[in-house]
Design a protein that fits this description.
It is elongated, with a radius of gyration of 18 Å. The chain starts with a helix and ends in a 14-residue tail after the last helix. The chain has a domain of about 45 residues. The chain is built from three helices and two strands; from the N terminus they run H-H-E-E-H. The model has no long low-confidence stretch (mean pLDDT about 90). By secondary structure, the chain is mainly alpha-helical.
Length: about 90
């Protein structure tokens, strides 16, 4: 079974193009993505980020029906995973 890093590396290679094959991401978009990633890393933003397994800050957001839902109420029901999608819609 592949490790998470191996799986992510494989996914990245397919998306960016590998072995002479074109990738799923257009070259212009890929260039922008790499530039923005480099700028974000250079900004030092990662220093203040919670580490995996470390509790994040509490928050409340509206759900799809406009009803406020707190992270505390979700955590009370079990583990809470938050995913941020950076891409095109």
């Amino acid at each position: 079974m592949a490790s998470l890093k191996e799986s992510l590396d494989s996914t990245r290679a397919v998306a960016e193009g590998a072995g002479g094959k074109p990738g799923r991401i257009p070259p212009d978009a890929l260039k922008i993505m790499h530039r923005v990633t480099a700028e974000q890393r250079a900004s030092g933003f990662q220093v203040g980020m919670p580490k995996p397994g470390q509790p994040g800050p509490a928050f409340t957001l509206a759900n799809q029906d406009g009803v406020d839902v707190s992270s505390a109420s979700l955590v009370a029901r079990g583990p809470l995973v938050i995913s941020f999608f950076r891409g095109r819609w």
